[in-house]
């Protein structure tokens, strides 16, 4: 079985353990994903039918790559494996089985924008203040409820939830949830969370369906298990209940979606759920140099909540981790771009070898600008999806309406676009009539004469007749011809064509690109169903990365750390290591949030194979104002022996300009911050972390970092978090002096004085 030779004995053990429950919880880069890939190949080799295998991955792209690798070992049989994200796999099942719980097989998938638009309509109807009940907030509450399998009825009956909502002054949330869910159902639509929530319902209420899929999926595997939520956990548990051939892999230290309901408890539950469980440990990191692995270990050791792991690398030590300080975000971008440029020319690397990772999407701007200036090709991953663009959504709304005329969001979107004389008053009238008669909007507009006055009735009639004609033609035309027909006859193509502005041209080209994509789809030979409605089914689940026309293009990769999960690059730049940015301002309120932020940093650092560069800026534009920034506490936590500083740049402090800006920032923060954020201290002031890290060390009353320029070996110090200790060594030159300190509580640590929050006692 030479195909398993690419695994070490532990990995191989896990891949060969094909029966019964298996769990692999191991550090980054230790080959977890590789084990799943080889394990699937092994299953097929030993005679398991590919149709009986289900693999759940975190992105569609990961599934695609895995399938390609498996194909290399087992050939075209790999095509038959069920593989994809939770959302895409269960959407597929719901298309087949959803009628059993009242959904049409061509149900629409509402994306976040659609969902929020439904919510806005509901809030308006209920006359609720949309500041208190902001669509964002409400959406997150409903999402959390669904992911914990709380239906709107249960939500309304749950005393705890009710009293919490009332205490928050948001006692109507239960009703909003009900109206929202009812509205989506009436539209024949599921939001993202429904894809899991309704799957759970389906499996619970229809045991025949459950039984069918339990028998179909004889072997289940889940990658990135640490980021599954309760709803996903339960689906997996149910499907695996008969055969118990389930293998989950993950890393608790990389759990970064708790804010979306992912629950670390799922890992702990797994052991309880399957007492016969076989646990495999993988300790060797094959991805990164020793220095990178050591840095990652030193970061994560600051978290209290973690399963102890021993991760090591046998690769070279590699370069030390470079820390760059820049004067501004623009300068930070410039430094990164120049480093890439230079390294590529001296070491003959490809653009592909570099990735720039950031905490928030907004940070991409300064990076992009700098890369463009040097003509460096780059690609942003996980950004706004092609399918989220207005013109694309417009055309797709016509498609949606054609296949599911009850889709109210689609209807509202295009009923008067392009303009056809159906004003807001008419639309309100339609909504009102539908409500009064307890029918759908579509039912109103197919009989406009019955519900509307003369003039508006006639323009509405023209619209509904047009959609009905689309329903007829799409039955016989190929996907591409149908799409083109709709683009032309809806007037959309003409409207965009006539707009001669640069943006108009751009939009027109995007529509052409969509049509080209549909053309390719209608000519594909590897799928049986190639009609437009099949093309439409998963569109809402596609991300920018899935639409990548040229995935192997040689470009620098830019993405948020969240999107970088599971990936690896020879040289990684992690930018924006500043207080209130990373860790983010929102995370400063609790230890749990701060630990999640630290895991995020761990994820970022462990993407790097050979080289890692970290940077921060001492000032940055935020909300249009220049603010002063303080280096992130995470820098302070890295063992300084692995770092190399590059501070030839500008002086860090003592610039009176900063002090003015600091004041400006304080004012600005008051104006712009959300209530929660406002409780975090403004940048530039020492951040009080006492409450967060109280368990680690409670600093003396009034603790403030003092001037450590006169620090000498033998002196006693107090560190804000590490507590009391004694200086045992000092090395390096000002301002980059490293101090080795022996702390009473935690032992020896090497700190960079300039970052360390120390007080001489
Ligand atoms: P993450 O936690 O970041 O998702 P992971 O545990 O899934 O990481 P993989 O991505 O599977 O790790 O592996 C990391 C890298 O190490 C990959 O390039 C992989 O091909 C390589 N690798 C893993 N195991 C071996 C091995 N036994 N021999 C050679 N290379 C290996
Ligand atoms: Mg992985």
Largest sheet, spatial ordering of strands: 13-14-12-15-16-11-19
Q: Overall 3D geometry?
A: globular
User: Residue ranges: pLDDT <50 for 5 or more in a row?
Assistant: 648-696
Alpha-beta classification: alpha/beta
Biggest sheet, in brief? 7 strands, parallel
Number of helices: 30
Determine the fraction of residues in helical runs and give it as a percent range: 40-55%
Radius of gyration, rounded?
28 Å
Q: Give the end-to-end Cα distance, rounded to a whole number of Å.
A: 65 Å
Cofactors, ions and other ligands in the entry: adenosine-5'-triphosphate, magnesium ion
Q: Report the strand count.
A: 24
Arithmetic mean pLDDT? 87
- Tell me the strand percentage band: 5-15%
Describe the protein:
- The strands form six sheets. This protein has a seven-stranded parallel beta sheet.
- It is α/β, with parallel strands linked by helices and about 750 residues long.
- The N and C termini lie far apart (about 65 Å).
- α5 crosses α6 (about 135-145).
- The radius of gyration is 28 Å and the shape is globular.
- The protein binds adenosine-5'-triphosphate and magnesium ion (MG).
- Adenosine-5'-triphosphate binds next to α2.
Key structural traits:
761 residues, alpha/beta, 7-stranded parallel sheet, 6-stranded parallel sheet, 30 helices, binds adenosine-5'-triphosphate, binds magnesium ion, ATP binding
């Amino acid at each position: 079985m030479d195909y398993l030779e690419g695994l070490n004995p532990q990995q191989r053990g896990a891949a060969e353990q094909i029966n019964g429950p298996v769990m692999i919880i191991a550090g980054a880069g230790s080959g977890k994903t590789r084990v799943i890939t080889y394990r699937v190949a092994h299953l097929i080799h030993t005679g398991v039918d590919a149709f009986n295998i289900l693999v759940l991955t975190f992105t569609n792209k990961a599934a695609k790559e895995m399938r390609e690798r498996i194909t290399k070992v087992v050939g075209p049989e790999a095509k038959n494996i069920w593989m994809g994200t939770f959302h895409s796999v269960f959407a597929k099942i719901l298309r087949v089985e959803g009628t059993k719980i009242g959904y049409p097989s061509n149900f629409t998938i509402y994306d976040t924008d659609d969902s929020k638009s439904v919510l806005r309509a509901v809030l308006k109807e209920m006359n609720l203040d949309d500041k208190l009940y902001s669509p964002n907030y409400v959406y997150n509450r409903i999402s959390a409820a669904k992911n914990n399998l709380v239906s709107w009825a249960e939500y309304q009956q749950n005393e705890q939830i009710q009293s919490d909502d009332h205490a928050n002054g948001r006692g109507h949330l239960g009703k909003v949830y009900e109206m929202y869910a009812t509205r989506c159902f009436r539209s024949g639509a599921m939001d993202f969370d429904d894809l899991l929530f309704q799957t759970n319902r389906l499996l619970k209420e229809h045991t025949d369906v459950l039984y069918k899929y339990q028998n179909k999926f004889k072997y289940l595997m889940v990658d990135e298990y640490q980021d599954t939520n309760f709803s996903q956990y339960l689906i997996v548990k149910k499907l695996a209940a008969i055969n118990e051939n389930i293998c989950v892999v993950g890393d608790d230290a990389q759990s970064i979606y708790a804010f979306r309901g992912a629950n670390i408890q799922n890992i702990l539950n797994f052991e309880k759920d399957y007492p016969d469980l076989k646990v495999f440990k993988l300790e060797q990191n094959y991805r990164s140099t020793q220095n990178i692995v050591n840095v990652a270990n030193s970061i994560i050791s600051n978290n209290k909540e973690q399963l102890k792991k021993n991760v090591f690398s046998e690769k070279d030590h590699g370069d030390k981790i470079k820390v760059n300080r820049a004067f501004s975000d623009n300068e930070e971008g410039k430094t990164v771009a120049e480093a890439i440029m230079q390294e590529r020319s001296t070491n003959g690397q490809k653009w592909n070898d570099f990735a720039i990772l950031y905490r928030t999407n907004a940070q991409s701007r300064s990076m992009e600008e700098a890369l463009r200036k040097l003509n460096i090709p780059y690609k942003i991953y996980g950004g706004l999806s092609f399918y989220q663009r207005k013109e694309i959504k417009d055309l797709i709304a016509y498609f949606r309406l054609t296949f599911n005329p009850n889709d109210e969001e689609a209807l509202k979107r295009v009923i008067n676009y392009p303009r056809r004389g159906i004003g807001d008053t008419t639309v309100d009238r339609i909504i009102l009539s539908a409500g009064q008669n307890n029918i759908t909007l579509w039912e109103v507009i197919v009989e406009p004469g019955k519900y509307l006055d003369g003039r508006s009735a006639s323009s509405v009639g023209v619209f509904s007749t047009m959609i009905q004609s689309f329903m007829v033609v799409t039955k016989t035309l190929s996907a591409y011809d149908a799409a083109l027909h709709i683009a032309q006859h809806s007037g959309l193509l003409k409207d965009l064509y006539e707009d001669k502005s640069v943006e108009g041209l751009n939009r027109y080209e995007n529509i052409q690109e969509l049509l080209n994509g549909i053309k390719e789809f209608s000519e594909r030979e590897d799928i049986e169903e190639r009609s437009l409605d099949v093309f439409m089914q998963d569109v809402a689940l596609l991300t920018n990365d899935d639409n990548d026309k040229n995935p192997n293009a040689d470009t620098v990769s830019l993405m948020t750390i969240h999107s970088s999960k599971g990936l690896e690059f020879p040289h990684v730049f992690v930018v924006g290591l500043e207080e209130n940015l990373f860790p983010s301002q929102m995370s400063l309120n609790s230890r749990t949030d701060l630990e999640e932020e630290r895991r995020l940093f761990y994820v970022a650092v462990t993407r790097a194979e050979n080289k890692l560069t970290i940077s921060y800026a001492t000032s940055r534009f935020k909300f249009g104002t220049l603010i002063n920034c303080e280096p992130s506490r995470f820098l302070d936590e890295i063992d300084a022996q692995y770092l190399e500083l590059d501070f030839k740049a500008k002086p860090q402090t003592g610039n009176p300009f900063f002090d003015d800006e600091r004041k400006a920032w304080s004012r600005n923060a008051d104006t712009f911050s959300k209530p929660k954020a406002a409780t975090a201290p403004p940048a530039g002031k020492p951040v009080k972390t006492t409450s967060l890290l109280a368990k680690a060390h409670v600093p003396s009353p009034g603790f403030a970092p003092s001037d450590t320029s006169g620090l000498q070996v033998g002196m006693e110090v107090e560190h804000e978090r590490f507590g009391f200790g004694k200086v045992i060594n000092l090395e390096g030159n000002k301002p980059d002096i490293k101090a080795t300190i022996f702390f009473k509580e935690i032992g020896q640590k090497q700190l960079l004085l300039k970052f360390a929050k120390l007080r001489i006692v």
